[in-house]
Automatic annotation (TrEMBL):
It comes from Dissulfurirhabdus thermomarina. Belongs to the BPG-independent phosphoglycerate mutase family. A-PGAM subfamily. It catalyses: (2R)-2-phosphoglycerate = (2R)-3-phosphoglycerate. The lineage of its organism: Bacteria, Deltaproteobacteria, Dissulfurirhabdaceae, Dissulfurirhabdus. GO terms for molecular function: metal ion binding; phosphoglycerate mutase activity. It comes from the Bacteria. Pathway: Carbohydrate degradation. Its EC number is 5.4.2.12. One of its GO terms (biological process) is glycolytic process. This is Cofactor-independent phosphoglycerate mutase. Catalyzes the interconversion of 2-phosphoglycerate and 3-phosphoglycerate. Keywords: Glycolysis, Isomerase.
Amino acid sequence: MNEPKTAAAPAEGAGEPAEKSPRYVVLIGDGMADYPEAVLGGKTALEAARTPTLDTLARLGEMGLVTTIPEGMPPGSDVANMSLLGYDPERHYTGRGPLEAAAMGVALNPEDVAFRCNLVTLGFREGRVVMQDYSAGHITDDEARELVTGLAPLVSGRSFELRPGVSYRHLLVWRGGPEGLDTVPPHDVTGQDVTEAWYAYEEEPLLYELLTKAVTYFHRHEVNERRRREGKPPANALWPWGQGRRPRIAPLRDLYGVEGAVVAAVDLIKGLGAWAGLQGISVPGATGWIDTNVRGKAQAALEAAREKDLVVVHLEAPDEAGHMGDAKAKVRAIERFDKELVLPVLEGLKDLGAPFRLLVVTDHFTPVRLRTHAPGPVPFVLYDSLNPAEHQGAAFTEAEAAKTGIRLEAGHHLLPRLLGRPPADADPSPKKR
């Protein structure tokens, strides 16, 4: 695809204003990529979903596959979305926790370690531990805040700081703590025996003491008593994971000369945006779950695009449906992504009166059958308002994207491709691997 065009300014005295500078918008459908499912007639969720706007973009834009997870790295949203924001995870990734700390405005010293900390439902039976629910039944923000803010004074001090986040997603900072502990993402082990993973925390006695205090405090808490009465899983434990120290990331304005904003509900994406120098925009009703306010995100994106060069919008819902193992819910989430986000953003950009480039992409696979993330190249489509193409019969699916023969092996090169600029990297040091 050609670099974005901008019309030349009129001659001095012509009385006509110069054309507005181009706008760049990225729409990320978290975990949309999948495998064929029998319940969907042998189709993937993208193939089964009704996505007329995405299919239109596939016909008029450049479609292909992009590898967002470097070989050997964990196939999580942290690594994948770092790639999509233009940063090489092999150089910059340190862990999920520091990214979420940035979203909460928690400053990290070089020696500090930040953990993503889930509220989970564990089953304790005869000395064995089972991960019954990685999200404590997608506990509400209010319930989670009551539990975490009540626990925080009991465990915080010179070593630890516990901060509430959104729903089941929270933050634990260990001042001067070690980073080598072997932790497991709870969504990777739903329904499994996690006895060894739980007792691995005993390697760090201070941390294990904190976790046992949490179990005791949560056991008879009013929030959990009420949830049990209502037939909901209790949030009976904390599960720290994804730890790391603060990363070295240069803002996108320094790398590419763009000012931008990020619209997201989950702290991971907000934190990535903060490290990248993007303005964080919160939307009322954006929950990070399948009930999120999708239309509100579209409206916020268009408002931001009036002032910003680059706007990134993230939708968590397809990923959550994948973790639930619900293929039909994933199809519905993708259809909402198409109808309530992609369509209004596309139409709204046309009304701004500026040339624009629109990138729609998924960050990674979240196969329904696995209920967790998986590696593999994922589909993207890049539409240029000044250079529309015409590809007959194309649709935004994994298979159709593969047919184009376009494949980016370095995921962090996709953003510069959108911007029409050569890839840049703030850190020329060797890769970590």
